[in-house]
Write a structure and sequence with these properties.
By secondary structure, this protein is α+β, with helices and mostly antiparallel strands. Helices cover 69% and strands 10% of the residues. Helix 12 packs antiparallel against helix 13.
Length: 440
Amino acid sequence: MNVVYECVECIASFIEIFILYRIYNILFGDLRKKRGKKEEIVFTLGAVVIVFCCNRVALFSYFTLLFGVLYVSLSAVYIYKIKYIVSFSVSSFYFLCMAYVESLYITAVAAFFGGQETFIYLTSQKSMQRVWMICVGKTLWVLLYFGAKQVIKKITLKHNYTRELIVVSCVGTCGFVFLTEQTWKGFGKSITGVWFLGVVFIASFLFGLYFVTESKEQKMNLKITRTRNQLLEENYQALNDIYTSNAKIYHDLNNHLNVLYQFLEEGEMDEAKKYIRQISQPIQKITKTVWTGVDVVDVIISSKVEKMRNKGISWDINAEFPKNTNIQPYDLCTILSNLLDNAVEAVERTGEAGNISLTIRKINYFLMIRITNSCIGKNESFDVFPETTKEDKVMHGWGLQNVQETVQKYGGTLKFRQEENQFIVDVMMFFEGETESEKE
């Protein structure tokens, strides 16, 4: 009997702690360098061993709960490289939820079958009844986890609820200790109702976070859509102006030919050359320069180069783009358009005639993009988007957010750094297609 009981207790502890690691993975999985569940399983087994030893002393103790919170939160910092306060908030809230649900379950069973004697028996005695209670309880806990999974997925790193989780955990812990002591002193059916209210409060808080997050993301998506449309409109207008000028030239081609004919008839060669230069300026703007071999992308780069030229910014373009890749032209346009616009604006803020360089290279199955612009500042690297110097801090950053999402679409990375008065943006994306070595 003891062997069966100990095995069930260990399995129950494993389920409780492993589910918490799975929740960490949902929230912070993108921060992990190593994928897989190996580390989680190892740390879970370690916790099970220690909990087993604690249960040999007492089946229930506040120390065991405290140990669980500290152990898992510290190990999560190691696995996911997150701040301890963030890890602690998740761990403490999880154990609080589990403690309230388990207490509600036990008191409900005791209320219908024997009252206080059953409650004491289930919480302090090793018995077959406790084994069945554990099996049913952990089954319900697993079902609750899968049921709340979508809610948990919504609460991501995009929205930091650390403070709220800690406040609710502190208040909830005080309530848990008080209710536990009251339950031990004088058990009654009414106490089950109080535990139920506690569970309802926690569930309401969790769903409240879900709906707040949903609302924030809807507003965020609306702003992103507006910004994308604005960027598309700006690029379209720039290209449309060039094409319109070009169309006017071709429309008046017959008139231009007549004027040139008159100059040549009268032997005015210098005037003819001057006239040709004047009417060819709009054509030169749209003259096809093959930067990448992708027409749409080449037009975008040409328009940005023209923008740099008009603002007196020197530029250097070196592009080597692989053929037959899965990288869509509109995605490449999103990346180059946003980053080059940011580079132009950054150079303008220096108040000097700066420079911008664009390098596109392929290395095996990786496309590397580097954009460098002159700036004023200290050497620095950024783990997240660098803080804007613009007045409109709310709207700024959506362009970079678009770039980040596009890069992640191809399993890539986006990094920023500043060194020797140069701001450098590095983009790396994985592409599917034939490399030169494979073609040979």
